[in-house]
Amino acid sequence: MKKIYPFVLLVAVIFSCDWKQENPGFERNILVNSDSEQLSKRISIQNAGVVNLLEPDSPNGRISEEEVPAGKIPMILVAQAEGPTHNGKTLRATHVDIAGDYAFVSYNKEGEEFLGAIEIYNISEPTKPKITAQAIFTTADINALKYHEGRLHIAAAFDVDAEREINTAAQYLSVSVGNGQFTSDFVKSDLEGFAGTGITYTSSHAAVSSGNDGIVALFDASHNRIASTPISDLRDVAYGNNTLAALSGEEGVVIMNPTNLNALSKINLDKDTPNSKRTMDINGDLLFTSEGAKGAGIYRLPSGTLVEKITIASNPEGVEEGDIVTNAVSFDEGLLMMANGGAGVEVVEITANNTTETLGIISLSGSSNFVKLKGKHLFVASGSKGLQILELERSTSQPLPGINCDDLTPYRGSNNLNVNSNDVMRYSGSAALSNLNVNGTLTFCGSMAVQDNMNINSNGFFEMSGSFSFGRYQGNSRLNINNNSVLKISGSAVIYGDLTLNSGATIEFVGQGSSITIYGKVTKNNNVTIKGDFIDTEGKLK
């Protein structure tokens, strides 16, 4: 039996299985585990902390010693999750969907063998994700999934030689989910083709694609096929602006009526690498496509008119040309994320009038093979480095009580911010910095992240309203609050590095509900003052 599979991330982990459920019928080969404590042991904060965007033209994707501007979007690597294993065989992440407090992740196994999984992550506490449920498919790859109104819709490929109840390798599955658990049996439907490759949901139907000599098919809530149309070498389907788009490695993008699959227009693209992972996203009347070595395309719906092509910004040394390709795209709230394989994740800002600006490359290790952005949550399937979970700290829209946020100027300076002893600086917005030194007075309202080092020196005063993050976990980053200096916080602060409070230092929390999370080492010298109403999540300031 030939297996067709998309090119996506390979991850590994040693995982002790304690299965909670083994279902009858074809589900005898679906093993469900709801032991959250055990499953979540694979999640690590070993490399967690502030992640700065790198300049695309810096050598090997590294920041040069020259002065560069501060980043616009503070980003935090919250955690990394190694992939699950079954009988010692490792799985790799293929797709992610995010809905509310939960993320849904699919997996398969590289090579000819059929083996896959679906996991549910609780992301309600951004800095502490948990895996709440897992389903291992011992005879199937899980290639894509989509959540819609309490049900998870799934594109899969089954081993027909191992499953007598399965008529075709390509399958559409669905299952009910709630509160981080699978709450019903899995239901399946046959598809022509060797593998289910993409899945989405229109206003009324599940739409699924299958690869090679495959189809796009619509299914109702009872798994009845409503319509279908053959399209070769399908990679993905996406719905938006009352249109359904199907991405083919041979035929480009076919834009269709979502109720009867009649073609409305077509976007011609270069023939793509066989069996490679490619995705699309739709926002308003814009279609975003991953186009391999060509980067990403932006098109107008429903006409398919080209708006702009975005090339891959980084060409790092030592990376094979075939691994510098856009595998996946994801768009949300003005940001386009491009998973560019060995060239990392490219972040592109798109304004209301569709002008684009490449903000930089997220400094993650490994090959970036899939990306999903929604709100403040960003998931990246990153080669052998596993599934990486990030949080974006966008600007706080409403000032929090306790700090005067009137008459502020958006920060547009260097990523090394120095406040001299006689300076009084007042800024707003979002800023990602490498280093911060405060000798005078600094007020910042919005979102700030400092990656490497931070000092509030003698008699310095720094007040922060909104969200603040500092350092890297076990990364030799240190926040020093020195003699007679003050750190004043209204909102949330997360310190991944170490914190030193020298004699006479003060941390003051203002307003209600402020919180601080400290993962590094805390050193407190004499006459240190900590006051105000706050939540100390790790108990480090007691």
Automatic annotation (TrEMBL):
This is LVIVD repeat-containing protein. It comes from the Bacteria. PROSITE patterns: PROKAR_LIPOPROTEIN (PS51257). SUPFAM superfamilies: 3-carboxy-cis,cis-mucoante lactonizing enzyme (SSF75011). It comes from Belliella calami.
